[in-house]
Amino acid sequence: METNSSGQTPAEILSDLGIREPDDLDIEAIALHCGALIQYKPLSGCEARIMGLDDSAIITINANSSPERQRFSGGHELGHWMRDRRTATFQCNEQMFVREWSEDNPEKRANRFAADLLLPARMFRPLSKDLPITFASAEKLAAIFKMSLSATAIRLVEYGSYPAMLICSTPKGRQWYVASSTVNGKLWPVDRPGQSTQATALLQGRTVGSGPQDRRADQWIKNFRADQYWVKEDSRLWTNQSVLSLIWWEDESQLIDLDNFEEESGSWRSDGRRNWD
Ligand SMILES: [Zn+2]
Asked: Do 93 and 138 lie in a common domain?
């Protein structure tokens, strides 16, 4: 096994292995390069775990999970191994994989590592160029990268061609969100989706038309004068208690007006809150 890969970034690992195409993203071979052996066993109570000693580790992935989940778990555990090696043992469950995007902790670092390794920006950006920010687009890309819809949708928001957000809502309101760099820190999602959104209908058990729909921006965005703009919404039930919504700006006038307004009024911000509050 290789012993000199500790601390390498996903981009460095892919470069070392000469991997340039999504088809070549073989998680087991990548793990071996990093000194970790992947094995599959039925697990209960967690999706995956890692036990490391000195320069090698064994990653055990739940054999009963979907292939997409298994791949992400492999990347996630490998992230623990490469980023937090001194903490030799991790046991990770499904909840952590997406919720933990919002905290800076070992779970977030492991998720980030998995996404950078298995949905690398360098491959993802050209494939997502000019695609609408919809679940149909995410599905297409998820099939190419053999990844889950949620992990791919996060990537589409981060690296797609349009300003966008992915927002997770439950009956209690917004749980977390991810925003593209173009809107992050400028536009703020409401605490719970508006009454005329697909998300609210889905959370109330009503059926809605599928595919993206035009929505007044104030149904999703709490910035000043949001009711004067439009966004596109594409929402899907994720678990039986939560809905994922892709929100995106095909018409960027809200952002352009905001930039102009900020220029006129100096360092004005709609509110001073951080993204992940
Ligand atoms: Zn973990």
From this structure: no
